[in-house]
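Colleagues,

For the teaching module next term, I've prepared a clean inverse folding example: a structure given as tokens, and then the sequence designed for it. I'd like students to try predicting residues themselves before seeing the answer, so please don't circulate the second half yet.
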């Protein structure tokens, strides 16, 4: 039996990168007979950066609503909020005693997020990958579907699983496999084709949010950075044109076709022809999700019930694992 675990932070609205890099793929796992899916809203990660407590709770339910609206079925998958399962942070401390500072210092996400202020960054931001390892290992998850940006963190999780197993001479934690699939595992910013699309990027023009209306989507795409050349007829010719390559990759991913086919369709055309067609495709793809999300947000109690029940189910898996870890490590019985 495979067990899938993945999550998103309620730091802001989900964007096209979160959708194509992760969420869209999550939906495809829940119909597999041999796979159990756990999808979490990782609010404990969201507090490692500046946030408003009164906004966070609603944002967590909004992310849960986005999961459901995008096709995660609470009857098939477990949807829950991380902070409702205290075993995540309890295991994090235990794994933290085995995590090496040198390895954490090499995590690129910490470097990106802390920027020039690394000395002032909080311990939580630094230890983020240890909490992520706990999120996964507390369920003994075997597979973790993520975008390419999370690959390094997954490697650390596997490393911590090995360290634990070796230190206590036991085959206890599995080595979770990253599942980096889909036609757009790394979606780039609309303003800079060399940077990933991100919720925490200050400019909202750099991303397309799941909740953007049609006018906003069209405006953002029209203003997206491109170059003056027309679109070529081969992918090789896009190698030095990161913005153009990103837009074609996104078009193909949403149209469910190969990049080569999308390129053929627009070969020789300028971006003034491509961009409105791309905007129309994004609007069409997002509309059912946004409508469903709006409906769910009108019935927030229902979403709360779904995550409460998911959190209970998750605790039923997590609590015995933590009890076993305590026994193995010689700690008091829970
Ligand atoms: N640009 C991206 N392309 C492909 N996948 C992406 N993901 C995020 N950005 C891209 C995937 O989305 C999932 C959830 O991510 P997260 O909410 O935990 O945070 P993140 O990876 O740090 O994403 P953001 O948008 O950049 O959030 P902030 O700015 O709040 O940190 C993950 O599976 C991730 O791979």
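(Answer key — instructors only)
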């Amino acid at each position: 039996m495979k067990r899938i675990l993945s999550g998103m932070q309620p730091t802001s609205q989900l964007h096209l990168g979160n959708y194509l890099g992760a969420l869209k793929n999550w939906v495809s796992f829940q119909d597999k007979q041999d796979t159990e899916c756990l999808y979490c809203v990782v609010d404990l990660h969201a507090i490692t950066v500046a946030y408003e407590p009164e906004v966070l709770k609603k944002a967590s339910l909004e992310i849960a609503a986005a999961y459901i609206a995008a096709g995660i079925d609470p009857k098939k998958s477990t949807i829950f909020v991380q902070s409702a399962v205290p075993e995540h942070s309890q295991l994090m401390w235990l794994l933290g005693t085995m995590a090496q500072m040198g390895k954490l210092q090499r995590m690129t996400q910490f470097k990106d997020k802390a920027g020039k202020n690394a000395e002032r960054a909080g311990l939580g931001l630094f230890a983020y990958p240890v909490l992520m390892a706990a999120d996964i290992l507390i369920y003994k998850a075997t597979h973790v579907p993520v975008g390419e940006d999370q690959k390094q963190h997954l490697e650390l999780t596997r490393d911590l699983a090995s360290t634990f197993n070796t230190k206590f001479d036991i085959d206890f934690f599995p080595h979770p496999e990253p599942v980096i699939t889909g036609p757009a595992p790394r979606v780039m910013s609309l303003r800079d084709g060399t940077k990933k699309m991100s919720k925490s990027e200050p400019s909202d023009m750099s991303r397309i949010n799941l909740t953007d209306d049609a006018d906003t989507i069209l405006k953002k795409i029209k203003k997206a950075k491109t170059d003056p050349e027309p679109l070529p007829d081969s992918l090789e010719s896009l190698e030095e044109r990161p913005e153009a390559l990103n837009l074609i990759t996104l078009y193909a991913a949403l149209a469910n076709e190969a990049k080569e086919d999308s390129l053929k369709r627009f070969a020789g055309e300028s971006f003034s022809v491509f961009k409105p067609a791309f905007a129309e495709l994004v609007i069409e793809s997002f509309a059912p999700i946004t409508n469903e999300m709006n409906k769910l947000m009108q019935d927030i109690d229902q979403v709360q019930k779904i995550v409460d029940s998911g959190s209970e189910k998750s605790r039923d898996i997590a609590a015995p694992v933590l009890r076993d870890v305590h026994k193995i490590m010689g700690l008091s019985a829970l």
